[in-house]
Amino acid sequence: MSNINTILVTGVTGNIGSHVLFELLFDLYSKKEEARIYVLIRKQRHISAQERLLNEVFSKQLIPEKIVPFYKEYIDKYVEVIEGEIHNFILPEKAGNTITVYHLAASVNLSNTEKAKHEIAHVNYHHTQAFFDTIKCRTKKLVFVSTAFSRGEIEGAIEEDYHSATTYNFRNFYEAYKMKIEKLVLQIAKENNFSCTIARPSIVSGRLIDFPKFVSSRYIVFYAVGEFFNKIKKSHSNIGTIRLALNIEGGLNIVPVDYVAKGIIRAADIKEEQLNITLTQNVPTQYIATSILKKCGINIELVPEEPEDKSTIEKLFYKTIGSQLLKYSMSKNHYFESKLIRKLLSNIEEPNMKEHFQEIYDFAHNINFNNANIKLEANL
C-alpha cells in the first residue's frame, strides 16, 4: 500500500464535496487504480460520521449513474471515515506524509450581520488555520476550494490572479474571509514546501453532465428565491406584482456541480496557484429572475434598485433572501477569465447554462427543493 495515492477530503457532506468524492471513485474505477481516501466528517447528535457518509453523501437520489455498479465495493475498499471537526481531528499515522488534500469544508453565510461575521471568522478562518496546523507537514498537494466571488465587486474581466489587486470591494464577510484565508493558505504552502492551487467555483447549480441530470445535494442561492416565492404563493392567493431589483444588463456565472468537481480533481495536477472554475458565458440576471418567478406563477417587475414603498411580501423578501442576494443581482457587468479551466477540461464540452437554466431550476421546483421527492429507478 506504500505506493498508493493517499487523499484527504473535507466537506464531503456538502454539494461540491460529495461530487468530488464521486469523481475520485470514478477515476479509480476508470483508470483501474487504487487509493486510500480519507473523508473528514463531523458526527451529529445520534448520527455517526459513517452514517452521514452513507445516508447523506451516498443517498440513492444523489448518486450519479456512472458509479452505481461499483460504489459500495469501492467505499469498503478505499474510503475511510475520520470522525471529527476540521479544527479537531486525528490524521492516522498510516496516511503517511505525501497526502493530496481537497479542502472544501466551509460555512456559506452571505449575511452582513455581526453574527454572520463571527461564524465566518470562526469556521472559515480560525478553524481552517487549525486544520492546516494538523496537515501542513504531511501534504504533497493541496486544492483549496474558495469562491470566484472572493475578488469582491468588480467590473469587466475578472482574471485568475486575484492576489495582485491592491483594493477589494467585498459584498459580505464570506467574500472577505475567503480572500484572507486564500492568502494565508498560499503562505503556509510555501513555508511547508507543498504545492497549492486555489480553486474558485462561481454560483453552483445541479448537474448538467452526469446522469441523472439537474440533481444537487442542496438547492440554495438562486434556488432559494424560487423556494421563497413558491411557499408564499401557497399561503397567499393574491400576491400582486413583485418588484425585483437587479442590473438589467448584468449576468451571473452559474456552473454545474459536476463540472466544478471535475475541475477540482484535475486541479491536483497543475502548478498554477489560482484557478477560476467558471463558465465563459454568464446567464443574464434578467433571464434568471423571470424564469424562476414564471415557474412560481408570480408576476414580476424588474426595477433598478430596491423599492422604498414595499408591499408586505416585498418587505419579507428583501429582509430575508433579498438581503443576501441583492448585491449579486445588482452586480456590475463582469465576466470571469475561464481559459485555464477550459484547458483542464478540454475533453469535456462546456455546458450551456443559459440553454439549460430553465430545466435546472424547474427540476428543483418540481421536487419541492427536496431530493426525498425524487422517484427512484428500480436499478438503484
TrEMBL record:
InterPro entries in alphabetical order: FAR_NAD-bd, Lipid_A_modif_metabolic_enz, NAD(P)-bd_dom_sf
Pfam families given in the database record: NAD_binding_4 (PF07993)
Domain Thioester reductase (TE): 9-264
Superkingdom to which the source organism belongs: Bacteria
Coiled coil: none
Name under which the protein is recorded: Thioester reductase (TE) domain-containing protein
Organism in which the protein naturally occurs: Aquimarina aggregata
